[in-house]
Amino acid sequence: MGRSITATLAALLLAACASTGMGDSQRLALYESHAGEPVTSFRFFGRLHSWTALGDSALAVWTRPREAWLLDLSGTCPDLAYSHSIAITSNMNTVHVNFDKVRPLGGTPSMNIPCHIRQIRPLDVTAIRQAERDMREGGEVVDEPREDQSGDSGT
């Protein structure tokens, strides 16, 4: 990828990640309120549609525009909030609880510590989008999910 494209992507990412009034704990509460019962795994074909950090121990990943998962991590995940992309391990196109990991990319090069997935819950994407729309219309501004900028999501 050329430097101008990389610089453009970085600028867009920084604009998308700017704090816009909703804190991590509020976003996490919103996503948790629209999460289903825990599952043991989900299908993953190596490329994320988008993702958003929800603090340093949870994130939402979109495997398709209308399919998302809330991943609770075991402990804190260094650099998650500052990463431009993430990698997720999988086995035979499936991500499993207590086996697979999330690895933030683009933060501190020496860190790159994998974070174990403790729990997976399906998200009601339609309900989340409606709640975010309602908040925007009510004067609250919410962060949008980040497009994954990596060419490889770690399969």
Describe this structure in words.
With 155 residues, the chain is α+β, with helices and mostly antiparallel strands. The N terminus and C terminus are likely disordered. Strands 5-7-8-4-3-2-9 form a seven-stranded antiparallel beta sheet. The protein has a two-stranded antiparallel ribbon with strand order 1-6. The longest helix is centred in the N-terminal third of the chain and has 15 residues. It has one domain. The two termini are 21 Å apart. The chain is 25% helix and 28% strand.
What is the helical fraction, as a range of percent?
10-25%
Q: SSE string, helix = H, strand = E? A: HHEEEEEEEEHE
**Largest sheet report:** 7 strands, antiparallel
Distance from N terminus to C terminus (CA atoms, Å) equals 21 Å
Radius of gyration: 15 Å
Summarize the structure.
The protein has 155 residues and is of the alpha+beta class. The protein has one domain (3-147).
Write the layout of secondary structure elements.
Elements lengths: L2 H15 L6 H10 L7 E3 L6 E4 L4 E7 L2 E7 L11 E4 L5 E3 L4 E5 L9 E9 L1 H13 L8 E2 L8
Antiparallel strand pairs: 1-6, 2-3, 2-9, 3-4, 4-8, 5-7, 7-8
